[in-house]
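PT: before anyone asks, these are the final sequences, not the draft ones from last week. 1211 residues across everything. Please model them as a single complex and drop the result in this thread when it's through.
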Amino acid sequence: MRKTLINREWSLLAFHRRVLEEGYDKSNPLMERCKFLAISCSNVDEFFMVRAASVVDQILADYHKEDHSGSTPQETLRGIEQIGQQIAADQYKLYEHLRTKLRASGLHLKKAHRLSLPEKQFLKSYFTEHIFPVLTPMVVDQSRPFPVIQNKSLNLGLRVKDPEDGEIVFATVAVPEVLSRLVELPSHGQGREFVLLEDVMKMHMDVLFSGYDITEIKAYRITRNADLDIDEDGAEDLLKEIEQSLKMRRWGNVIRLEVEADTSKEMIRMITQDGEDDPDAGINYVDGPLDLTFMNKITQLTGYDHLHDAPFQPTMPHDREVDLLDWIREQDRLLHHPFDSFGVVVNLIRRAAKDPDVLAIKQTLYRVSGNSPIIQALIEAAENKKQVTVLVEIKARFDEENNIHWAKRLEQAGCHVIYGLVGLKTHLKMLLIVRREEQGIRRYVHLGTGNYNDVTANFYTDMGLLTVNAQIGSDASTIFNMLSGYSVPSSLNKCTIAPLFLRKRLEQLIEYEIDSVKKGGTGRILLKMNALVDVKLIHLLYKASKAGVRIDLIVRGVCCLRPGVKGLSENITVKSIVGRFLEHTRIFYFQHGGKELTFLSSADWMPRNLDRRVEAMFPIEVPELKQRIRDILSLYMKDNVKSRYLQPDGSYVKPKTKPQLRIHAQQLLIKEASRSHMQPVTLQLQPRQTPDRVMALKVSAYDH
Amino acid sequence: MSQPKIAAAIDIGSNAIKMLIAEIEGPGQLRVLEDVRLDSPIGDDTFTNGRIRPEAMFSVCRSLKHMSQLMKDYGVRHYRAYATSGVREASNSLYFLEHVRQATQMDVELIDRSVERFLTYQSLNYGLTAMPTLRAEGLLMVEIGSAGVQMSVFADGKLRFSDHVKIGTLKLKEILDSLRGESLQYTEVLQQYIESQLGMLLERIHAYNLPHYLVLGGETASFVQRTHELVLGVRGMSTDVFSRYHRDIIQSGTFKLAHKFQLDEERADQMIPTSIIMAELWKATTAEHVLIPDLSLRHGVLHQLAAEWSNSTLSDTYVQDMMATALHTAERYQLDIAHSLKVKELATKLLHKCNASFHLDASYELCLQLAAILHDIGKHISQEGHAANSYHMLKSMDMLGITDKQKEIIASIALYHPRGTMVPIRPELSTEENIALARLTSLLKLADALDCSHRQKVQDIKITWQHGEYLQVKPLYEGSLELETWAFMQESPSFEQISGYPIRLKP
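LR: through. Structure below.
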């Protein structure tokens, strides 16, 4: 019998492959392709640090039970290694391809053996002046144990021979992170040339080991288990506990060893057996430079705008002459980022910070940018004697260090910083402004699907609702009170929160569609999210499919649901859109007997979101805004340029489309945003081949 | 247009510390901004150990600090914080209040049960538009507290009587907890105990044939969340629906209830007695629905605050209800109602005339009127020493909205009303209250003298200042007024001593 669920880890790797495929897509500009390669490498690193690490943990704990997809941890790990190696091979194939393309565009990543004598002389002095002072070679012998190698750090392993006694010892030198991976060679007026830092180091290792014979120098890199495990119950001060855990992260168990393809067995034996490393850790042989995330540095080189996507300036959705608060009071406002500028939200907080009638500002913060204008505005508000309460989720993975830093800054400015509920990450995105007006207290609320991060808002698609709806305002207060520990949870008017009620509410909504079909009506579900993993909800969707409910899912990342299986899920389609912007909106549409309930949410359908995080789902009830969301969903459903369809076997297939029929949703949304935000909400989609013919798409959620 | 005022009401209860922040435009015009609740460990401590432990004090202070922060968020300048039965019955209540004051800079007032009831009563009168209809048609109002259950019967638009039984949710736990581990039929035992405590009272309520039934407090909030049915604009539950929940509740254990109703176990534990009390008292009415308004003492506090801001401290409805209850009590104890009413009428007239110099507020007037109606209640026990009997009976009575000190004044007026008795200084009262007591007693004595024969010969009185030298009382009367004149002359010296000016009766 076919397994009804797709292996979660393999599905996640399949997403990383889709990101990599964008690097292969010739229709993307060259620098964007480099960026996709770098992202894919970074993603796979994170995958090994967190996901693969947890599978390895299970194996080490002698756990053999099958997961929901029917795979044992051993089987899952074998699959991870197999897919991981395929991805790695494809990454390096792409790297070589892009290197050629970059060279044709005047950017040359030179290999060491291609260097001219003057270049070698330049690099020698560069090594002496810049690199040598920061190097710390470490020799491993009987008296000196193997040093601890930092997670994701790039290192050179050397086998050196003592000419006196002929003994070969192992030495290791970390490639310094303080220096750029790209060492630029003197220009000759024909573009720019670079050599990788580790190659420069390799050329000069004899300086470090003078008197020894170097028999082999190879780069290696290890990835460690970096999943923070914090005992919150015992943590008197969560901030200190997390700081401690961060230090530990650098030294977690080894999950993966990457070595150059022609590394000798002796060298590998020295790295794996003489070290503290786990012999079971997977070894990846890499035919090229290790850690391709340096490709991101290439994309940041100035003067190559023509190799990037055409610049896109998000549009401010409101007239700057109109006061922001008046604009929100006039009617509910839907923001669709990055097409609508996230600046609206930043401006709202700035506006509130200066407003003498604003009494309090409350906000959740999960991940913010390095120099966040939101933090600045909140600090300003506190300095202006507003009551500012900030719920900081310092446990946001890989952002903890940054989060601790600005949480302390906020506290110093006089904000009330709260670190959320024990055992639950606060993932919902909510801003509440309490303002005293002529008629009394009014609450301005922003609820969003994405983080309050002004930088990522430029390349993540997210939606937000700005409203003065009294019931939503009351819900926002209740939720903040609950999160602040000011009140025990109580019932809400419009919003639904996890982990208390969201799962149940989603179940009810799906069941309602099933009932509708059973009573002779129609059932329709259209969901857009980043991940669909929750087994209970997947089985409920299967039940709905079997009952005859039509279900279309747009799941950007992991999807454990197996669509299109006869007798199980033939009424379900799943597509993934990976493009210029990271699809991040969570939109849930239910026909609900014609009422057409439309929700936005911060939650994916994963057990962690529904059971272990504080998330919110909120309805969009203003008819124009509901229509706008349905139009956007329909557009995404019609996208055939950046969409890949999930097959029953778990693979993804990109449809072949004739050029004149191409519908590129993100591109069309950019065009629409560029034209004007003052236009009616109906999307005007223009087929590429017929720019004069405006095809007005008035698509409803049923129509695809 | 002026901005509405924002105020907060905090209720430090046995199970929970609750706060309401609202905009107030006037009595009956609240817009709730925040309604928060934090668990309180006080009840467990008080009803188990008789005192509040330091850990519980710390927990309460932490909760109050949270609430104080929330008040700052709304720029709240006016607040009232009240502690109720959990603190009231703790042996270290004064230390507790002082500790809270020092730790939070928050003044918390310890209120007695009658004030607690009065505030809830205010919340209904102001906050429930259907209240006049319910009162007119007949209503049993039940308030389930941690210590006891208060029942009030309204008929023909008036409060007929009110009674209190010590079967509050935590009190029951305290009484029957030892049985819990021993009996497999704990719920049945609980039910039997509640029935036994309500016994006679149910019959008394039943006699009014009440078509409406309203319940507040306890874990009724959990019921409110499960009904969207509106009866006269109030959330309500029909017999069928309630019976279904009730069956489910008494058959489920605490853990199952906690899961089903998404409550913590402490609250789930209270659902069982709440449901049994609701079901038992429902039997005494003919109501088809139980009304469960989302109102509380905190709403009443804010309405009362609004009333004070608009200088209407005692509503007409409240005063009428108090009079009706007092008369109902007088009837039950077979007092001479005509005499009571006459004394009340004459004493009120005298007070109104003298108040230019007495400066006694409306609450003192109410004390005088209640004392006037019930001053002879002790005669129900014996004629001899009836004043002392009256004092003890009045002191033990539950009077809606009357504080312990006010009750002391009412009972003392009755105690010192016989002729020739002087009012000594009562150590339990302040100087101001002692002066008020003496003045009110002297007025009651004069009024009582004017109906000495209990024949209501004096139909009315006209009180005037004569040349700024003395107060002249000119009665409109029928028949001979010799007895009344003699009695008046006996009482006038005590009035003159207390008021500082002479009084003459001019028949």
